[in-house]
Task: structure prediction
Amino acid sequence: MPDRHAIEALILDAVRLLAEDFELNALKSPTTHSPLYGEGGALDSMALVNLIADVEDALTEKFGVSVTLADEKAMSARHSPYRSVAALVDAVIERMPS
Amino acid sequence: MKTIVITGTRKGIGQALAQHYLGEGWRVAGCSRGEASIKHVNYRHFELDVSDENAVVAMARTLHSDYGQVEALLNNAGIASMNHALLTPASTVNRILQTNVLGTFLFCREMAKLMRRTKTGRIVNFTTVAHPLNLEGEAIYAASKAAVESLTRILARELAELRITVNAIGPTPIETDLIRGVPQAKMDALIARQAIQRLGEVRDVINAVDFYLREESNFITGQVLYLGGVC
Result:
């Protein structure tokens, strides 16, 4: 099972690729603290949809795990799991199959 | 080779659509609750219930890892139940909504993810003339397809940015299992309400689907096309 560092690297890669596709200058060199969606975030809803799908695909491809990020827990969370890279890493770890 | 996903390929219209697109050189990924009825080198069958979220996600992940992307989806799987509303059990209502609405939604959601990078994705949903004709005895079936039409129009907007078109086709009655058991007098009365008064044929459906799938149809989305002149 991948550790936090590996998941973080995977998500940063996905954000970087998305930033190139969507020409998002603010996210071309993302860090774990980069805001993604919501306050201060550079992603609009369509870019977020793409990022979530990219991360789910990458998790399957690289680690052979099937994780669904857009679940009811994510929809009802007080703090969006999509607000920053670090929050997204937490969301992936929480949803990793045990 | 382009990949088309067709739900409900074990029999009827779905089976005919699968055979048609195999003949046209597509790779077809089909599914049904039972075993495959099609044997073809470019046909791959998934035995699943279209309303089973985990199974649909697993199918999408398999398609992604084996083929990379999907170019088209035909949400053909559907069930009907003719009955007076006062005699319709809740379990039947649930079953119809699960297959027709939830199943259509899950396949749209998962396959749209696999169409994102093609920039030419095509989704065709299946509705029915029972909805615009407000057919007695088809309250739940027609209501489920009304939901599919609404889903089609809204997804057309949500997926436009990904250049995926989402349209629907509403066949008239066709000689398939779905209408077996419907009394002849009822069928005659229904056909009398069509502008062109005959039973539909599978080739009528294939023709409309072909139209939606054409590359030149990239400016057509959110539309519902009823056959037989029903409006």
